Every structure is written in structure tokens, then in C-alpha cells.
Automatic annotation (TrEMBL):
This is Helix-turn-helix transcriptional regulator. InterPro entries: Cro/C1-type_HTH, Lambda_DNA-bd_dom_sf, MLTR_LBD. CDD domains: HTH_XRE. Residues 13-84 form the HTH cro/C1-type domain. Pfam families: HTH_31, MLTR_LBD.
């Protein structure tokens, strides 16, 4: 079952996506003198087949929705598969994944896996995207996470506030990668929004990257998909690497990010950074 906090988050999420739509997007005539952007609540309610009072309560976090009704609302709001899954999780249909056992378990078990990729930077993240383990190639290309204070040793913070990591990426690569990571982080972490670590991380991001305050208040979610980025680490020529994300079967709330050199020359350049 969803918690009251999750119900409030679901309402905020639905309102944010309702505001993005125009009447013509859902086959309604354009009405003059609309005082606020987006669809009206009564329009969403009518298209979803529910009462305006019930839909208002849903956005206020005062009622629980069935899976069928929530999926109907999602179709009206043009939610994609990732966004629909996120709404369902907030409604309690997908329970937040809990890391089995102590945090040291996945780290000790997966460190040899990370180390087996000598020319591919790899990092292990927990469900909050805190950096748990990394290999030598990651330290060489992106910087050693152990040099970062523990409360900042988080992938989102590193991407937006760490000069070494952010400085190795061109702006053309950095912004879409950072936004994709944040959308994936939000999709996973919002289900645990009452967690003090999540709250502390948002406070840290707001304090250390205030110019991105519009990111931290954003409600968009997404998947971290495969992509190729150009990296210019210190002491090496620019190289191209392909990003993949992997979930360990026995630690499903953890995430491995793996950057694989695109060519043998790119792999050789990674070695020159060591």
C-alpha cells in the first residue's frame, strides 16, 4: 500500500503532467481565456471516466486508486511506460525494493566484478545512487570517489558539482547524461522519499548546484539508456565510451554503470591515464 507521503507525491506527479498538456493534445477543442496552462481537472476526470471530485481527491492524496483507474488516468495524461510504472509505484502497486543484507554485502561481492574490467570505468551505486564501489579505471578517468566527502559521494552530486567528473564531458554530452541519470534516480528514489538520505541529498544538491534548482523541482522520470559519450580525462586524448547500466540479480536495488571504450584505440587511451 502507498503511504500518505507517496500519495502526496503521486498527486504532485499527476499535476505536473496535467500541466504539460493542451486540450488539442487529447482531442478537445481549444477553449479561450484559460487562466492556467494544461488540462483542467474536470477534463482529465471526464476522459478517464471518473468524477471530478474523486480526481481532485486523487491529486490531493486523499484517495487510493485501483491499478485499472490509474492506468486510465495515465493514458489521458499521455504517460509513457516508465512514467506509468512510476505512478503505479507511488500508488503502492510496485513495492520499493529493499537492499538485502548489510550494504557491505553487494560491495564485497561485486568489487571483483568491477575490477575485472581494467579499461572500462565501472561503479556500483546503491538505491540512493550513492557510490558504493568502483574500479581503477573509474578512478583514472572520473577521479577517485574516496577523495570526496561521504555525504557528497553520490553520482548526482558528482555529475553536477565535481569539477573533475563534470569537466571531462563536453556540455553537449554532460547535460543529457546528467538529466538522464537524475530522471532514473528520481524514478527509483521517489518511492523512498521519506528516507532521510534522499532528503539530505536534495538539500545538498540545492545548496551546491543552485543554478539547477529547476532540475531538483522537476517531476520527470525516465530510464538510463545506453549512450555514447566523449570524455577528455587528464593526461589522455579524448576518447569515446558507451554507457550501459546493469542490475545485479542478488542486489536488485543496486546499479552498476559501465563505460566501455568504443574502439581499441579508446581502450589504449584509458590505460594512458593510469
Amino acid at each position: 500500500m502507498s503511504t500518505p507521503a507517496a500519495g502526496q507525491e503521486l498527486g504532485t506527479f499527476l499535476r505536473a503532467y496535467r500541466a504539460l498538456l493542451k486540450p488539442e493534445d487529447v482531442g478537445l477543442p481549444t477553449a479561450p481565456r484559460r487562466r492556467t496552462p494544461g488540462l483542467r481537472r474536470e477534463e482529465v476526470a471526464s476522459l478517464a471516466g471518473v468524477s471530478i471530485a474523486w480526481y481532485t481527491w486523487l491529486e490531493q492524496g486523499r484517495v487510493a486508486a485501483s491499478r485499472q483507474v490509474l492506468e486510465s488516468v495515465g493514458r489521458v495524461l499521455r504517460l509513457d511506460d516508465t512514467e506509468t510504472r512510476h505512478a503505479l509505484r507511488l500508488a503502492g502497486f510496485y513495492e520499493p525494493e529493499v537492499e538485502p543484507g548489510p550494504a557491505a554485502g553487494p560491495r564485497s561481492a561485486l568489487q571483483p566484478v568491477l575490477d575485472s574490467w581494467p579499461v572500462s570505468p565501472a561503479v556500483l551505486l546503491d538505491r540512493n545512487f550513492d557510490v558504493v564501489a568502483w574500479n581503477a579505471a573509474w578512478s583514472a578517468v572520473w577521479g577517485d570517489p574516496s577523495a570526496v566527502p561521504a555525504d557528497r559521494r553520490n553520482l548526482m552530486w558528482l555529475l553536477v558539482a565535481d569539477d573533475r567528473l563534470r569537466g571531462t564531458l563536453s556540455h553537449a554530452d554532460w547535460e543529457p547524461l546528467a538529466m538522464s541519470v537524475f530522471q532514473h534516480f528520481r524514478a527509483q528514489a521517489t518511492t523512498a522519499s521519506s528516507d532521510e538520505r534522499i532528503a539530505a541529498l536534495y538539500r545538498r544538491l540545492t545548496a551546491d548546484a543552485p543554478e539547477l534548482s529547476h532540475w531538483w523541482s522537476c517531476h520527470s522520470v525516465g530510464e538510463l539508456t545506453t549512450r555514447v559519450v566523449t570524455v577528455a580525462p587528464p593526461g589522455a586524448e579524448p576518447l569515446r565510451m558507451s554507457l550501459a547500466s546493469l542490475r545485479p540479480v542478488d542486489a536488485p536495488s543496486s546499479l552498476i554503470l559501465l563505460f566501455t571504450p568504443e574502439s581499441p584505440d579508446d581502450a589504449t587511451r584509458v590505460l594512458t591515464v593510469h
